[in-house]
Amino acid sequence: MEALSDRVVRVAPDERPSLDELSGQTVFAVFEQASGCEIFLGLVTAAQVSARPGRIFADLLLQPPPPPLSADAPLEEGWRRLQKEQGGALAVIDSDGRFVGAVTPFSLLGAALRETRRLQAGIERQSARFRQRLDRLAEHTARLRRLREESKQLLSQAAETGLEQQLLQSALEHLVSLVGARYGALILLDADGKISDFLYTGIDPETAAAIGRLPTGKGLLGDFLLEKGVIRLTDMERHPRAAGFPPGHPPMHSLLAALIRCDGKVQGRVYLCDREDGEPFDCGDQRLVEEFADIMGMAVFLLRQRLLSHQQAVELKVATRVFENSAEGILVTDADKRIILVNRALITITGYSREELIGQTPRIFSSGHHGEDFYRQMWQSINATGQWQGEIWNRRKNGSVYPEWLRITAISDAEGEVTHYVAVFSDLSEYAVRRQGMERLIHYDHLTELPNRLMFRTELRQAIRRCHFNGRQMALLMLDLDRFKVINDTLGHQVGDRLLQQVSRRLQHCLRKREAPRMGDTVARLSGDEFTIILNDLEMPEDAITVAEKILARFRRPFVLGEIERSVTVSIGMVLYPAQAETLDELISRADMAMYHAKQAGRNRFCLYDPALHEGIQRRQMLENYLYNALERRQFEIHYQPQVSLRDGRIVGLEALLRWRHPEHGLINPAEFIPLLEETGLIEPVGVWVLQQVGRDYRQCLGALGETDFPVAVNVSARQLAPSLIGQVAAVLKDNALEPHCLKLELTESAAMDDPARTLSLFDSLQELGVGVCIDDFGTGYSSLAYLARLPIAALKIDRSFIGNMMTHTEDREVVSAIVALAHNLGIQVIAEGVETPSQWRALREMGCDVAQGYLCSRPVPLAQLADIDRTVWEV
Ligand SMILES: Nc1nc2c(ncn2[C@@H]2O[C@H](COP(=O)(O)O[C@H]3[C@@H](O)[C@H](n4cnc5c(=O)[nH]c(N)nc54)O[C@@H]3COP(=O)(O)O)[C@@H](O)[C@H]2O)c(=O)[nH]1
């Protein structure tokens, strides 16, 4: 159809051609009209018209007419037919035989030219496309080449350097520029599949942080690490899987991601987003990224291997250093127990050289101290548990034997087969020497070198066992020096220590020595001035009494304490085993009871345990139980004892003394319950009650005696010496509208010396308050004169033991006289307590003592009886 001539002119058979219209290319198609339809008769060319001018077309038609050409016939056929027919034109009909046009050599040539041009254009297009492809291929090949070159570099760096992060980062940057992506990231996983590294390029750090923290299983990025293969997505905005981006994530149009595998495991993922040119990622990009991911896998593998071997090398180096520099001796044997490795410490300890030891067995160190059994048990333990440790005696090269603490560990391979044994030991020679010293420290008293309480209990336990074994008796003696505190306090601790050392030697001289098979006796120091003696293998109980008497006799000789000589006595309690006690604790407590009894009975004596002593202890316990409720049951009361001026016989004060009246047991002796109050701490609330009661009684006391103004002394225990005491005293004064001088506090000398700094500060506060303080029982403690002078003391009360003896013992009289002089020198008043006789009264008055208190004047009496005191007795 394309070859049809456009110069075809329709004519009728009887028409005559017009020569004006005629051109060389014109073709006339002759149609006859018949019954309303057109019948094609044939073609007449311009050449035919020119050859027979003046003729009508019917005459010019070729007879027979050449067969028409089919409209779908190829150009070549038309060309061939035209040459054959020599007519110069051929009619063309369609499949229904209808005339559609005509072809001429000219029209055919035109069509052929057009076709050729079209073909050329097609070829040109194709070749342009081909050229383009070739270019792209060349580019891809170049990229691949670059990638490979860079990969080679990457791998060799990975094998040589430890800079994993920098290396991977620069590799990623290369990939991104190679592919021309906008940004890219690389995620590495640790052994647990968690993100260990997140490297990125082209993304700002905040976004990267959000992406890098993304949990798995949340949207595309969440799923990202779980995805098994390559991901290549385009048109991400509309992609259903693109949900779950963190807020602020840069818009992403296309994504290309590949797995990084190494050693058959997924080690991470590399991914690129958006090409710079806006095109989606293509297959070439994908191949590139996959290839890159493979290389990454190898690089990561190499890096990790390198890191591992580096670590192993470091560990090995450290282990070697530790091995060589360890202070403990170390040896390694093979499975046959042949020594293959020793360290420097082992060489130093044993004296053997390395060469002498390698190839030997540890038997080389055997000392002969341990029997077969010992080694059998040791190896049994190693075989069963893989290790053993304990003390063992080994021999050095020079033959000397030494103790060591040895740990042996069996080393097994993956199949559980023992491949080596490692022995680590420390030389205990020095420790053994120190241990002996430690043992002494633990079991012996450092001052007297006698066994201490711990050792004593061990010895006593053994003595009891021995009695069971040989059916003999033993005795336990508990000893306590009399008034040792006074020596300690007055002469100082050094003198006290010297005395204790001499006492221990004297006691040892009284005892039998241990001479096999005889057990011998044991003397131990339990604490302070408390000693104990175990008398073993007694023939008869009387032997124990003999020893006790011997001790008392030995003590009669004074102790020489440097320049000073002092007589010291001892109180001894004694109990027999098995006659008087059954258990160790029973023995100790009963010996204690007996000793307590010896003290109560006047000291410097021994007392054999008597079941009756038990009663005393039981009473103590009973009183203690009652004492807890005594205050709230209002069982306490105050008795008052007058203090009388030795100058004019006037009552110048009262001492308030606590009394306990039990409904069943009547008045309990203060010497019994006051120590109990102290021990239980009840003295603190009870002391407060005494102060308050005295405050309430004050005016009535004065009224009963017809006096107007004097102080009432209240005893204060050491346990009450706290800052709160000031507040309590101030409250009593305020509550009862009393002047401060109405109250006086009495504090024993030892309580005042207990904590001098605390005492000084309390006394200062009391002085500020205007309340005077009196030092009680003066002469029984150890007061520093300088210290005493610093205390704001109102009075000193001389202990009644001195007053009681002053008429018969010159020494005590001199003490009293010295105290009076001393106190007066310091401007302090002196009170003598325990004045019972007129002769004491007179003697004290002659010495210049200020005040007397004692049964001579009056016993302590309840407030109600104060008015009845007979004053004529002391008005001498
Ligand atoms: N912390 C407190 N201690 C108190 C309190 N009340 C008393 N005590 C102390 O108890 C100890 C025993 O006291 P007590 O049995 O009352 O004995 C006092 C007098 O009865 C007794 N005394 C007085 N004159 C004589 C005498 O001529 N002969 C003689 N044998 N004893 C006599 O002396 C005790 C007074 O002691 P002191 O206080 O040292 O002046 C005793 O230590 C009390 O201190 C209390 O409320 N709190």
TrEMBL record:
SMART domains named among the record's database cross-references: EAL, GAF, GGDEF, PAC, PAS
Coiled-coil region list: 130-164
NCBIfam families recorded: GGDEF, sensory_box
GGDEF domain segment(s): 472-611
Reaction equations catalysed: 3',3'-c-di-GMP + H2O = 5'-phosphoguanylyl(3'->5')guanosine + H(+)
Positions of the PAC domain: 388-440
Class of this enzyme: hydrolase
Name of the protein in question: cyclic-guanylate-specific phosphodiesterase
Superkingdom field: Bacteria
